[in-house]
Each structure stands twice: as C-alpha cells, then as structure tokens.
Amino acid sequence: MERRHYEEHFVARIGWLRAAVLGANDGIVSTASLIVGVAAASDRSGVLLAGMAGLAAGALSMAAGEYVSVSSQADTENADTERERAEIAADPAEELRALAEIYEDRGLEPELAMQVAKALHAKDPLAAHLRDELGFSEHTEAKPLMAAFASAGSFTVGAAMPMAAAALVPTASISLWVTVSSLIFLAVLGAVGAQAGGAPIGRAVLRVTFWGAVAMAVTYGVGKLFGAVV
Asked: What confidence tens digit (pLDDT) does each residue in 196-229 have?
C-alpha cells in the first residue's frame, strides 16, 4: 500500500487564527483599559456599565471591520481570478510561456520548466497561474464571514475576562485586580496563539503583555488626571 508523505503545517489556520487572536487581544486590552480608566474616577456600577458598553461596541466593530476588510481582499482576489481566466482564454500560448518562465526563475532548466508548465496547463491552467503567478492559496483564501465571527466571538470572550474581574473584586482595588488579571489573560492568549501558529511562545507572550500594560497605564493615568470617564 502506497504511503503518502505528510507534514503538519500551520498556514491553513491563517484564515481564522489572525482574526481570533486579534479579537481576543483587543477584547482584553480595550475593555481592561476602559475599566481601569473608569475605575480611577467612578464606582462599580459605572465601571460595569462602561465595560458592557465597550464589550458590545467593540465586538460589533471588530466583526464589521473584519468583514469589510476581508471582503475587500476577496473582491480583489475574485477580480484577479477573472482577469487571469480571460488572459488564458485569449492567449494560452503566451500564458504557458509566462508560467514556464516562473519555473525557470525558480531554478528549473528551460526544457524542464516548459514540461512542468505544459503538464499543469493540461490539468488546470487557471489553478496553476493563480498559485504560481499570483500567489493565491486555498490556505490563505479570504473568508469574510469566518473572519468576522472569529473576531467578534474572541473579542467577546476576551472582554468578558476583565469584566468578570471587575465584578468580583472589591471596588477599591478594581484597577489593580483588572490590570493583573488582564496581563495574565494576555500572557495566556499570547502562548495559545503562538502554540496554534507554531511560533515562539516567549516572544508572543512578551509582545502582548507589554503593549497591554502600556494601554492600561495610559488610560489609568488619564482617569486619575481628569477624574472623569475615559
């Protein structure tokens, strides 16, 4: 029985991983920063109200932003696909030569490059050009709805964490507890995101916790300075 070569790669996760990590990170940072800033100048009810408003607005904003952004990418990909399809139909010989040149540039001898190009043209010329000329891949294909749901859902989960901390800890220490717990949440998120993407964990953890700490410090300072909701 023939055995197929198999290697695990993480590029197939790009479609949802980027949106999910961005959403969760933004949910934690923006909601925690809002809570810390408000807590510096308000009571628990004001903190929770501001946090809920930030959660709802942020989740919807993330979903809409991801959908519009990724839809624009999809529109561009579709337009390029139709353009390439038309070019192949209008002048298949020229497109075959162009594909062979791509393989030559990658190191194949001219004759072998042409053989490969002809073989791929015989099977599916459009797929060959989309992959090797334009760099399109099924793993990185734009998926607006997936990105929107992943972003909004992960934002909501991320925002719920500092909200829970603000609801459970003593009013006088909301800022401290939300800051500490949110940095822990961010560190876990960085580690999980790096693990899912096969990236170095330490660098990801340091990156997200550093910028999260900066954001919360700034909003806390503004709340203390002006004594008002920020």
From this structure: 667 788 888 888 888 888 888 887 777 666 654 4
Are 215 and 162 in contact by the 8 Å Cβ rule? The answer is: no
- Residue 2 is predicted with a pLDDT of 45
Q: What is the distance of C-alpha 5 from the center of its chain?
A: 30
Phi, psi of 78 (to 5 degrees): -65, -40
Residue 171 structure tokens: 């009013």
Annotate the chain with three-state secondary structure.
CCCCCCCCCCHHHHHHHHHHHHHHHHHHHHHHHHHHHHHCCCCHHHHHHHHHHHHHHHHHHHHHHHHHHHHHHHHHHHHHHHHHHHHHHHCHHHHHHHHHHHHHHCCCCHHHHHHHHHHHHHHCHHHHHHHHCCCCCCCCCCCHHHHHHHHHHHHHHHHHHHHHHHHHCCHHHHHHHHHHHHHHHHHHHHHHHHHHHCCCHHHHHHHHHHHHHHHHHHHHHHHHHHCCCC
pTM: 0.64
User: In this predicted model, what pLDDT tens digit does every residue of 134-180 receive, in sequence order?
Assistant: 887 766 666 788 888 888 888 888 888 889 888 888 888 888 888 88
Tell me which amino acid residue 106 is: R
